[in-house]
Amino acid sequence: MSGVEGYIYPNEVTLYWSVLIVLYPFITGLVAGAFILASLERVFSVEAVKPTYRLALLTALAFLLVAPLPLVLHLGHPFRSPEMYFTPHDTSAMAMFGYVYMWYLMAVLVFEIWLDYRREIVLLSQTSKGLLRLIYKVMTLGSSNVSARSLHIDDKVGWIVTLVGIPSAFLLHGYVGFIFGSLKANPWWSSPLMPVIFIFSAMVSGIAAVMLLYMATTKLRGLKIDMRCVDKVAMYMFYIFLIDFSLEMLDLVHRVYEADESFRSLNFLVHTKLYFSQIVVQICLGTIVPLVLLFLTQVVKLGEMARKRIYILSGSLALIGVLAMRWNVVIGGQLFSKSFLGYTTYKMALVTREGLLAAIGLTILPLLFLWALVKLLPPWPDKSLHEAATGD
Predict the structure, then answer these.
(1) Domain span holding position 131
(2) Predicted TM-score of the model (pTM)
(3) Which of 26, 181, 238, 369 could form a disulfide with 294 if both were Cys (CB 3.0 to 4.6 A apart)?
(4) Please, are residues 213 and 246 in contact by the beta-carbon 8 Å criterion?
């Protein structure tokens, strides 16, 4: 009876989590991965990735601002969501998101960006006009001292904030895997490796996103891409991707070796309903192909144009693969009955609160926020500001 399809016993399977819950861990993963890339330059002094440092911070902030929206839209009464902060429940893993989110947003990410940009903000408050001048004045928070000693203190404090932000980024995204891994009633999710896999796949997606954004923005500005920087970013992406893939394979081998009472049912699910999304998209196109392409760049001396194309293709496929992984975990874990005797199907609507258009909108929204942040706080050096500061 383990291969029965099309019949579910009453109340055995209900898909409570839709595509928005797929999108939530994907977006938070981009936040964590982008911040980890930024920390390579700030904490670990990897000078080669410096051109991506500020862009990575702004990318993390743009996606972090959108991160809670999939959860809020998923709620039956979204306006009740602030109650999570006013009536804290410290024994709830889901409530922990609110605490970690506010800590990471205000105490870590926004503070680090403010410290890093404080000199530019002060100068812009003096050189801008109209509404922008007022905005920059507010952003100075009354601090207009940009002396060498003051900036040195900013740098030291920023280093400490980044150091604190690394475990905070892991906690922000790792708790998502913790929630899935702690659900013992669902064998598809119940694995102690789930939080670790989520963290490493998040780093892969965040690094890939920043790499693609750096290449795209540099090209749009008509400048030459710093290949030393992109090569180094791709190298870190390759090694982290390799660890992520190894962990996923370890989890798979463990499941096959254990072969408990749920194995036949899950095996049937993988070979039918999840075959395309997991085997084809996640494993083949989203993992093996980018790993092979990135491996070639590490062992074969390729031309600059060839490397650029490989990085664009491998980065794009990696993002698709990580999104497919989130889909297979969230949706796939809800498709089989608790008695392993039947399966259901997830049908995604087009125009609903949790439909395809809402998901697409939430995917595009962080990019719009990033565009606004880049306009407000350019992540690349501004020669006019340098001249204004030096009096040249």
Answers:
(1) 20-182+350-390
(2) 0.91
(3) 238
(4) no
